[in-house]
Give the backbone structure.
Amino acid sequence: MASDVRIKILLECTECKRRNYATEKNRRNTTGKMEIKKYCPWCRKHTVHKETKA
């Protein structure tokens, strides 16, 4: 079953700690926690967003 490999995650801003984005990741390809630079509407700038559990 391919659906067991993909898991739902939330991306949390590292500066204001708000959860702004929901996405999925492949558990086999990305074993560690995801970190990606995205726009935070609360901070009004691009910040690093880290993975949290959905």
